[in-house]
Specification:
The chain has 212 residues and is an alpha/beta fold. The protein is built from 7 helices and 14 strands. The protein has a single domain, classed as Metallo-beta-lactamase, Chain A, CATH 3.60.15. The longest helix is centred in the C-terminal third of the chain and has 12 residues. It binds zinc ion (2 copies).
Length: 212
C-alpha cells in the first residue's frame, strides 16, 4: 500500500492518496484545501484514481471535492447521515468567515458494512458517528485476514478524540463507536487521523485520556 498525506492551511486537515503498488489504482480521501497537492501527487506518481471517499462532511474535508471530481471524473462517496452537513458547506464556511463554493452532490452513499475495492485492496466501511452523524472509518487492507490501516477522519486523534459540540455530535456515541468499531483491531494497527500525526490502536487504547 502506498500512502501520501497532504495538508494545507487554514485547517491543516490530512488528505490522503492511497494506491495499490501493483495495479497503480488509487483512491482519494477527503479532498479539502489540499486538493491541489493531492492532484499533483496523482500526476507525479501516475496513479489511476477510481473513487473519492469522504470520511465525513465537515468543511475542511470537502472543499476540494469539486476540483478533484472535475479533474479525475470519478464518483464521490459519502455517508447519507452527513448529507445535511455536505449540503450546508457554504453555511459552515460562513461560521468561519470563509467564502466556500457549494460542492457537486455526492454520487453514492455508503452502505454500512459495505466493501469497496481498488487494485488488490479492500476498503471496509464502518459507521463511526459521534463527531458527526455520518462519520465513517475506512479500513483498508489486502484481505479480511491481512492487517488493516484505518482512515478515521476526526473520530480519533493521537491522544485525543473528535469534538462533539458541532451539529449532530454526541460524546457518548463517539466513545461507543471508537470502542466497538476501532478498538476491535490489534494493537499494531496504524490509524491515520484527519488532523495531526498517525497513531496506533494500541497506543490509543493504553494512553488516550478520553478512553483509558
Ligand atoms: Zn470534522
Ligand atoms: Zn477535520
Amino acid at each position: 500500500m502506498h500512502i501520501w498525506t497532504t495538508s494545507a492551511p487554514p485547517f491543516y486537515k490530512n488528505g490522503f492518496i492511497v494506491a495499490c503498488e501493483r495495479t497503480r489504482e488509487a483512491i482519494v480521501i477527503d479532498p479539502g484545501d489540499d486538493v491541489v497537492d493531492q492532484l499533483a501527487v496523482v500526476k507525479r506518481e501516475g496513479v489511476n484514481v477510481t473513487m473519492i471517499l469522504l470520511t465525513h462532511a465537515h468543511l475542511d474535508h470537502v472543499t476540494g471535492v469539486g476540483a478533484a471530481k472535475e479533474e479525475l471524473g470519478v464518483e464521490v462517496w459519502l455517508h447519507r447521515d452527513d448529507l445535511f452537513l455536505y449540503e450546508g458547506a457554504a453555511e459552515q464556511g460562513r461560521m468561519f468567515g470563509l467564502n466556500v463554493e457549494p460542492q457537486p452532490p455526492p454520487d453514492r452513499f455508503y452502505t454500512v458494512g459495505e466493501r469497496l475495492t481498488f487494485g488488490d485492496y479492500i476498503v471496509d466501511i464502518q459507521h463511526t458517528p459521534g463527531h458527526c452523524p455520518g462519520g465513517v472509518c475506512l479500513a483498508i487492507g489486502r484481505s479480511e485476514q491481512d492487517e488493516r490501516e484505518l482512515f478515521v477522519g476526526d473520530t480519533l486523534f493521537a491522544g485525543s478524540i473528535g469534538r462533539t459540540d458541532l451539529p449532530g455530535g454526541d460524546l457518548e456515541t463517539l466513545l461507543a463507536a471508537i470502542r466497538s468499531e476501532l478498538f476491535v483491531y490489534p494493537d499494531a494497527t496504524v490509524v491515520h487521523s484527519g488532523h495531526g500525526p498517525d497513531t496506533t490502536i494500541g497506543v490509543e487504547r493504553r494512553t488516550n485520556p478520553f478512553l483509558t
